[in-house]
């Protein structure tokens, strides 16, 4: 299989710090890239599929704050961790309000780095599984959400009434239905839109750290707390706090969360000073909270405090009439991103897309469209450009795509199923890599970005598959 190492970019003008962080993250299994300043860091971001950025605040040429703004403008979901000295903690807090994921205060230990990096990457993975984006100017879109089905019409009516209010909202629905998109719409269409929108994925945070994540901590509160740090409630003051996967919060923490919601006040971990905040809370879950209550895994009083206004997002299979609108949106999106010119979707292919059950909802549709656009060699998307599981919807026995065709006569004469699968997968990998290189005119950097693997990983895979010859490894 193609390697799936996460790529981490370290941006710092101190050679020793770059070296130490690179050594640790490499040992932890990440593919590490380095940049000496923000200017070089932005250049690396444009040429590689980066999963996480760790950057210093104070640097020559382009500083960390500028890097943060520019990077998030091009990739809003990119997690960025700031490195700061004690004297610039206020600036780091400001960076969090602008969209940074977290910050490290010098000196930091390896466990703290490992913990924050792991949390950031897990949060991004969960967000990618859940979030979908829709520009507000496309046909059939309101509040940045695409759709005109009855379920979405009801959603728009609720958003109209509750967006500009301080009322707590609980969003429910399956994974991939766009719960974060609705939370963002509530914030963006309220009088709080100029204030912070702070999101926390409760499933990505270890249970023992959830309290300090939400409410912050004072210096010396626990081992490793070398300085005080505000929690997400403080960072969201005046704005909106979005707690995704609220059902994952430990029962013992739910009491403190309930008090913070009812009284708008709390204390940091290890602190005695009461902190008051003005925060509008939006929570989301794909779990049945009433079942969790029956199992004593969720407090009933917290549920009723969260469930002031309830919004249920329909699964994509419940709003099949919206699929053509979403297909058009993703076709435009990936034509632009992948520099393709696919003019549309053939009726038979659109029928299959509309008939499929979409267990992964909109996120699954987005992934299918990205792959189909990437490997489409015709003027329009055809049935054969779609995955096998979709082509089975109609009940017809359509042949698999060229990349998956297997000639049993070419398989090894000796060996069992495992050896046959290995040979078939090697051929599939070779075909996918070859087509990506062809699509990018032999540009290894851009091909790696399309395949969502590291450049180094692609080079190793090309060597393994015998694809190095005849390919000029272009960098630009």
UniProtKB/TrEMBL annotation:
Keywords: Activator, ATP-binding, Cytoplasm, DNA-binding, Nucleotide-binding, Phosphoprotein, Transcription, Transcription regulation, Two-component regulatory system. Its main location: cytoplasm. The keyword Mitochondrion does not apply. Transmembrane segments: none annotated. The modification 4-aspartylphosphate is found at residue 56. One of its GO terms (cellular component) is cytoplasm. CDD domains: AAA (cd00009). Residues 145-374 form the Sigma-54 factor interaction domain. Residues 7-121 form the Response regulatory domain. It holds the Pfam family Response_reg. The keyword ATP-binding applies. It is found in: Cytoplasm. GO terms for biological process: phosphorelay signal transduction system; regulation of DNA-templated transcription. GO terms for molecular function: ATP binding; sequence-specific DNA binding. It comes from the Bacteria. InterPro entries: AAA+_ATPase, AAA_lid_NorR, CheY-like_superfamily, Homeodomain-like_sf, HTH_Fis, P-loop_NTPase, Sig_transdc_resp-reg_receiver, Sigma_54_int. This is Response regulator of zinc sigma-54-dependent two-component system.
């Amino acid at each position: 299989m193609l390697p799936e190492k996460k790529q981490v970019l370290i941006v710092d003008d101190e050679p020793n710090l770059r070296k130490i962080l690179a050594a640790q993250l490499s040992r932890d299994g990440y593919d590490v890239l380095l940049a000496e300043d923000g200017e070089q860091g932005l250049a690396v971001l444009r040429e590689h599929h980066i999963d996480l950025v760790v950057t210093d605040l104070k640097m020559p040429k382009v500083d960390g704050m500028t890097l943060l703004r520019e990077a998030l403008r091009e990739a809003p979901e990119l997690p960025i961790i700031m490195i700061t000295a004690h004297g610039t903690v206020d600036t780091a807090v400001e960076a969090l309000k602008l969209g940074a994921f977290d910050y490290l205060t010098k000196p930091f230990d390896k466990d703290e780095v490992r913990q924050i990096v792991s949390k950031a990457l897990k949060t991004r993975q969960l967000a990618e599984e859940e979030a979908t984006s829709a520009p507000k100017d496309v046909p059939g879109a309101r509040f940045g959400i695409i759709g005109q089905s009855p379920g979405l019409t009801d959603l728009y009516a609720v958003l109209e009434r509750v967006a500009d209010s301080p009322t707590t909202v609980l969003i429910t629905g399956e994974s991939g239905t766009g719960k974060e998109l609705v939370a963002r719409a509530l914030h963006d269409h309220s009088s709080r839109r100029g204030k912070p929108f702070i999101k926390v994925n409760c499933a990505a945070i270890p249970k023992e750290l959830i309290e300090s994540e939400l409410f912050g901590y004072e210096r010396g509160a626990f081992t490793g707390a070398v300085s005080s740090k505000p929690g997400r409630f403080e960072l969201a003051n005046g704005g909106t706090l979005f707690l995704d996967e609220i059902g994952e919060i430990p029962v013992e923490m739910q009491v403190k969360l309930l008090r913070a919601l009812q009284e708008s006040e709390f204390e940091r971990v290890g602190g005695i000073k009461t902190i008051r905040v003005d925060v509008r809370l939006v929570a989301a879950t794909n779990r049945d909270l009433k079942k969790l209550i029956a199992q004593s895994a969720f407090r009933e009083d917290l549920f009723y405090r969260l469930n002031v206004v309830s919004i249920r997002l329909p699964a994509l299979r419940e709003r099949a009439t919206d699929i053509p609108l979403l297909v058009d949106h993703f076709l435009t999106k990936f034509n632009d991103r992948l520099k393709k010119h696919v003019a549309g979707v053939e009726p038979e292919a659109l029928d299959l897309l509309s008939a499929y059950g979409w267990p992964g909802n909109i996120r699954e549709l987005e992934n299918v469209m990205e792959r189909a656009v990437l490997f489409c060699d015709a003027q329009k998307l055809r049935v054969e450009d779609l995955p096998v599981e979709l082509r089975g919807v109609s009940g017809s026995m359509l042949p698999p795509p060229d990349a998956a065709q297997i000639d049993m006569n070419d398989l090894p004469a000796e060996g069992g199923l495992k050896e046959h699968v290995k040979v078939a997968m090697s051929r599939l990998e070779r075909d996918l890599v070859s087509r990506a290189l062809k699509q990018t005119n032999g540009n290894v950097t851009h091909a790696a970005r399309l395949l969502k693997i590291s450049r180094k990983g692609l080079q190793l895979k090309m060597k393994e598959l015998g694809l190095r010859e005849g390919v000029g490894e272009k960098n630009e």
